[in-house]
Amino acid sequence: MTFGALRVTLGAGFAAAFALSATAQDLATVAGAPADAFPKPDRPVADIVSPIWHSENERDAAGEPQQLVSLLGVKPGMTVGDIGAGSGYYVVRLSPIVGPNGRVIAEDVAPDYLQGLRQRVDTLGLRNVEIVRGEAHDPKLPAHALDLAILVHMYHEIAQPFALLYNLVPAFNPGARIGIVDTFAATQSHGTPPALLRCELHAVGYRELSFNRLTGSDAYLAIFAPPSVAGRPRPDTIVTCKAS
Ligand SMILES: C[S@@+](CC[C@H](N)C(=O)[O-])C[C@H]1O[C@@H](n2cnc3c(N)ncnc32)[C@H](O)[C@@H]1O
């Protein structure tokens, strides 16, 4: 999809969304395996400091969402889980693209961020957005819901990455993928070195499909296929990864 076409899609979607008046749906949640069943990461975890990465204008100018939409094949009718949705940079951009037959499930662990996001979604009347409050070890998403999960500039903040990745698996539909965007910096500097990301994803049974440098920023998009529910390793057999 070209930048122009995406802009038209976004514009048309927003017009349709504004014509509707409804509130963001809050989804019933499903609990996963407990946090203490999993090893903690053997590297620093960044603090949660903001509901957004760089400014929306800066990211729009870099064409970040267009690159993700194209590389991840986001299409009308898809259900996308935005894990660590924050203030909703992707929520408001993907909602019109997946359209009335698709959904964006926006999940985060910070109640105040979710409150702000709920207001933003309600103000825009985005009827196809549902909001979920997860926990660091468990996104608490409904089963068989997602065609795609995105984790954008948040992986390094996940206090329990092995548990979260494990508990995310039942939420995927067959053929679903997960796209992770982060910078090349160390986790304590709010990035995730690609070798570390690969090691942690592989430890939970995810298979790498592609690795893409994004233009306009020091970030990458890594795309993985999740394991099946039965194909996940037993939590107590998961081996942690070193940062370097
Ligand atoms: C830097 S913000 C990025 C927000 C948004 N994805 C973006 O691209 O602007 C990181 C977000 O991840 C959330 N977060 C941190 N740990 C999380 C976890 N374990 N599960 C879900 N969200 C988490 C934070 O609360 C915060 O909203």
CATH fold topology: Rossmann fold
Biggest β-sheet, characterized? 8 strands, mixed
List the helices and strands in order: HEHHEHEHEEHEHEE
- Radius of gyration, whole Å: 17 Å
Number of separate structural domains: 1
Strand content: 15-25%
Structure overview:
The chain is α/β, with parallel strands linked by helices. The chain has one domain: Rossmann fold (3-Layer(aba) Sandwich), CATH 3.40.50.150. 30% of the residues lie in helices and 21% in strands. It has an 8-stranded mixed beta sheet, sandwiched between helices. Helix 1 packs across helix 4 (89-98). The N and C termini lie far apart (37 Å). S-adenosylmethionine binds at residues 48, 50-53, 83-86, 89, 107-110, 113, 134, 136, 152-154, 157-158, 164.
List keywords for this structure.
7 helices, 30% helix, globular, Rossmann fold, disordered N terminus, 244 residues
In short:
The chain has 244 residues and is α/β, with parallel strands linked by helices. The chain contains 7 helices and 8 strands; from the N terminus they run αβααβαβαββαβαββ. The chain binds S-adenosylmethionine.
Blueprint of the fold:
Elements: H1 3-19, E1 25-26, H2 56-61, H3 64-72, E2 79-83, H4 89-98, E3 103-108, H5 111-124, E4 129-133, E5 146-152, H6 161-168, E6 172-183, H7 194-203, E7 207-213, E8 219-225
Helix pairs in contact: 1-4
The structure holds S-adenosylmethionine.
S-adenosylmethionine binds at residues 48, 50-53, 83-86, 89, 107-110, 113, 134, 136, 152-154, 157-158, 164.
